[in-house]
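Example 3.2
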Amino acid sequence: MKNSQIEELRYESEAFDFEKIYLTYFSKMKHFAQEYVISDEDAENIVQDVFMELWEKRLVFMNYTNLIAFLFTAVKNRSLNCLRHRMIARKTANRLQEEYAITLQMHLDSLEAFGQTVFSEHDTEQIISRAINSLSERCRQIFIMNKLEGKKQKQIAEELNISINTVETQMGIAYKKLKAELKDYLPLFLFLFVL
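Structure, written as tokens:
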């Protein structure tokens, strides 16, 4: 390394004493961030990221006259991003929690209604027969072969001379239609037809 390069590096390190800046401002910046993001860990990560950016761009910042303004602005902006991210995450979690509560309530209502209606109002076989008979002829035939006769989809496809995709599609239609038909008897539907 030439003497002129060594002198240039020495000048750069004197003009931009990263260690001194870090020691002087790190705790202040962390305290500033923590006032807003609350979490000690988040505040520390934010300030670490700002100082990492400062280090990576130190040649640009060597002549930056208002370093304190840069540090505060960078910490403020990263804190804003952190808070925005938290708000989005919280709203999503709340929405999922609400959906879960609604699902639980539906299941509770379904189970409560199930015990009162299925065995007191109708014969279970009549309910199932009516639901299966609501299927189209081909759909009903495939469903009965699969669920009541226990045949595999490949075997059904071979016997009916159709593709496995057709069998799968018809089974999907059957499940959807039966679920709609047996919506008031969801536990019965799940018990008899799922799996």
